[in-house]
Write a structure and sequence with these properties.
27% strand; Neuraminidase; five-stranded antiparallel sheet; Cytochrome Bc1 Complex, Chain D, domain 2; 506 residues; globular; alpha+beta
Length: 506
């Protein structure tokens, strides 16, 4: 059953409207927009912030495992206890070595593989590391014993759509031996022309037998299988611009061939005002046949990664519970989310949520110190939580907080090449910065620590997929390079580098 797509003129009008909303949001002109501004370039954290601001559930202790993982997104644990972390906006995957000296922090850190196209989801199967890039999936032989690649990276799935809003791909190995892959929608709400968008798909480990598994999932970034009954559950982010408290974000029980409502319905089969209400019998029937969520999160909480806890080391009430990272809202008048919750199933199958790790948003609901993204657990019961806002990874362990004395030491990272600023490019970048009136927003979102988080090339590439609400201006390669050189040059002089900053706007 195929519904007629929107005509081109309506689509163009919608794009123009959304663009206008973005500019209005950035300027602070409309209600319902409450952005953690530092996310435009990333914040940072330290042990003191973690100790003073973050709280973990009773029976657990918390460490700042690494504070030097810019844009930390999805993770995987190796058989040797090391941690792999994707950094899509840097085009790389990093390896953080297990804490064997007991100080609560990674024993080392290095880039495992780079020059990828926005890598996001990671999966380890036998002696292969699978990486979900924005437009395909590749794999490379991986040696768990020393955390090294043991072969050449090769693509096994190509041609996946990665335009629009939700370009990330998440991958995980199912108990049935298939690899499952999620792909979000291109938009806030629309009728997709690409049947692979807003779905969960699957394929064999060699890339064969590729098929769409479930549809109507706006942006199911995280998913995992229950150890109790083997059922597949996935988070899903609800649409924006319908008020502070609607629609809910969702946890769905995913079954093959099922349709989960988007874009025609939200929550428990509530018709969408743009694409569901009053749109005829065909749409009404699709809504009636859609599968409602198994659990509803608060609106705009943005649930991302989720993981069922399996280790016998966990306290009894947490065994077989699921941890879900709530990335936090931007489309609300008052911020909400910004924490990790645990989901518990009672004997009847009803789900309730408890706070597990919180304090990323202060009690005034104004100051944000982190945004959780993904959760993984290793066989020893270590729980790792990534944070793309602070560029950090936290470790949570069963036990009392004062059992471990955390030793402060500088973060370990690969050495970076000295920046070679091109004066002509920086001059052009200064003109672009002024012409776009970038200072209007960046008085609220100061551009700091760029040289710690990015190389010149990585910063230039950032402008292809900026963090909302920053619009994608469609800069050419030379314009992106120019902006990167200008911003880096400005930062170097603000840090007291020798010489006077150039006045490029004279």
């Amino acid at each position: 059953m195929r519904l007629t797509p929107l005509i081109t003129t309506v689509a163009i009008s919608a794009v123009a409207a959304v663009t206008g909303l973005i500019f209005a949001a950035v300027s602070g002109w409309i209600p319902g927009v409450n952005v953690p501004w530092k996310q435009l370039v990333g914040a940072s954290t330290d042990q003191q912030t973690v100790e003073q601001e973050l709280k973990v559930a009773t029976g657990f202790r918390l460490d700042l495992f690494s504070r030097d993982v810019p844009n930390a997104r999805f993770m995987a644990t190796t058989r040797n206890g090391d941690l792999l972390v994707s950094q899509p906006k840097l085009g790389q995957v990093s390896l953080l070595k297990a804490d064997r000296n007991g100080d609560g922090q990674a024993d080392g850190q290095r880039i495992l593989i780079e020059n990828l196209k926005r890598p996001h989801g990671l999966a380890l199967y036998e002696d292969w590391l699978y990486i979900a890039e924005s437009d395909g999936v590749g794999r490379v032989a991986f040696d768990h014993s020393d955390g090294r690649l043991a072969g050449r990276y090769q693509r096994i799935v190509n041609g996946l759509g990665d335009t629009g809003n939700h370009w990330t791909k998440t991958i995980a190995l199912g108990p049935d031996g298939w690899l499952y892959l999620s792909s979000g929608s291109t938009c806030n709400v629309c009728i997709e022309e690409d049947p692979q968008r807003a779905t969960i798909m699957r394929f064999q480990p060699d890339g064969s037998d590729f098929e769409i598994y479930a549809t109507g999932l706006r942006n199911s970034v995280g998913f995992d299988w229950s150890p109790k009954d083997g059922a597949l559950y996935a988070t899903d982010n609800g649409r924006d611009w319908l008020g502070n408290d609607f629609p809910p974000c969702e946890l769905n029980r995913i079954e093959k061939g099922h349709f989960y409502g988007w874009p025609y319905a939200n929550g428990n089969r509530v018709p969408d005002p743009d694409f569901g209400a009053g749109k005829g019998q065909e749409v009404k029937q699709r809504i009636a046949q859609s599968t409602p969520p198994a659990f509803e999160f608060r609106a705009h909480n943005a649930p991302l990664g989720m993981r069922f806890l399996r280790s016998p080391e966990q306290p009894p009430m947490y065994r077989e519970a699921a941890l879900v990272a709530l990335h936090g809202s931007w489309n609300r008048d008052e911020k909400d989310g910004y924490k990790v919750v645990s989901l518990h199933w009672d004997e009847s199958g009803k789900i309730h949520a408890e706070d597990f790790l919180w304090g990323f948003l202060d009690s005034s609901k104004s100051n944000v110190v982190g945004r959780p993204v993904d959760v993984v657990e290793d066989v020893r019961g270590n729980i790792y939580i990534s944070d793309d806002y602070a560029g950090a990874v936290y470790r949570v362990q069963p036990g009392v907080a004062d059992e471990v004395s955390v030793v402060s030491r500088p973060p370990i990272s690969a050495p970076k090449k000295p920046l070679a600023i091109d004066g002509d490019a920086a001059r052009q970048g200064a003109q672009i910065y002024a012409r776009r009136d970038c200072a209007r927003c960046h008085t609220q979102a100061p551009l700091r620590d760029l040289s710690r988080k990015y190389s010149l090339k990585q910063l230039a590439d950032y402008f292809d997929t900026p963090t909302p609400p920053m619009p994608n201006y469609g800069f050419s390669n030379s314009q992106k390079r120019a902006l990167a050189h200008y911003l880096m040059e400005r930062e170097l002089h603000s840090q007291g580098s020798p010489g006077e900053p150039q006045d490029y706007l004279r």
